[in-house]
Amino acid sequence: MKCPSCGFAESKVVDSRPIEEGSSIRRRRECMSCGKRFTTFEVIDHIQVIVRKKDGSKELFDRSKLLSGLMKACQKRAVSAESIAAEIETELQNSLRPEVTTSEIGEMAMQKLKAVDEVAYVRFASVYREFKDVETFMAELRELRQTKKD
User: Fold this and answer.
1) What is the mean pLDDT of residues 7-17?
2) Total structural domains in the chain?
């Protein structure tokens, strides 16, 4: 890190502390040449995940779109849509895959909802899987019931 006063390339870290809920670090540095102190900030550089939609178009992952669908499914339920959206976003970032499909994201959401709240899961699945009639809905409920027994 170059000193802003003299331009010397070496400095030592005097103090370091996390800020903004641990998502970045504030460091106090001291120039090894002139002795002046300065502050730097480090933040995590996130990979931009591209989402391939059903029609073939592509766009950047937008957590708010996922959160919107999850909030509708979790309405009046004791489930945190925000935490599920954060988990999915973290998993996408950690996978280091530059591109995912909307169906992969939908399946991840359904898997997480199924584990925490069956009603929220069925609500999300009914929209995501585009249930056309009551029979399709009932088939999903039967499958859910069967996996619960196993």
Assistant:
1) 94
2) 2
